Structure formats: structure tokens, C-alpha cells
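Minutes, structural biology subgroup

Action item carried over from last meeting: produce the C-alpha cell record for Glutaredoxin family protein (Photobacterium profundum). EB confirmed the sequence was re-checked against the source entry. Recorded below for completeness.
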Amino acid sequence: MLITLYSTEGCHLCEQAYSLLVEAGVQEHVQVIDIAFDDVLFSRYGVTIPVVSTQPVTSTSSEACSVTACSVTADTVSDESTHSISELGWPFDSADLAAWLKNNGFN
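Output recorded by EB:
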């Protein structure tokens, strides 16, 4: 399962959230999506990032994303009506993240 971190460049809270994901040992499951490149994502997450999600995201690119660079357009985000979405919005700490990860099948 893929964990999506909705983020944008220069977001210090997003960097903190990514650090918590690294501390939790799930960084190999994390795809960082920069919301700045997509109007729909920016409208949805613009004032709430960082947000972590288990929503399946299908990217047309095989290129790995980093904390500062990744763009995925709205048409690559799976249809919300057909998939269960679990999101954790900021603020969260390591305990909140650990509980969320456990509830979503990450040990």
C-alpha cells in the first residue's frame, strides 16, 4: 500500500511530517506529491498540508518523488467514490502517526 504525503516546496511542516514518516520506518512506502502543480489538489489541500493519505494514487511516471519535487495531476488521483480514503491532517505527532499507520495496516 502506498502512503501519499501531500506537500509543497518550502513547507517546513511538510518536512516535519516526512521526518515523522522516516522515524516510523515507512519511507519506502511514501510518495510525496507537490500540490502546487495541480489546481484541484491545491484547492483541496492548500491550507491543510501536510496531509498523509492511504488513498491509492496511480502515477503515469515511474520516477520516484522526493520531499521537494513531485507532480501528479488530478486525473492520476484515483476516483474517491470507488476507493476508501484514510487521511491524517496536520497537526500530528509520532504517536498519532503510529496509531494511524497501525489502523491502515502498517506495523
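Discussion: The chain is about 25% helix and 15% strand.
Next step: EB to file the record with the rest of the batch.
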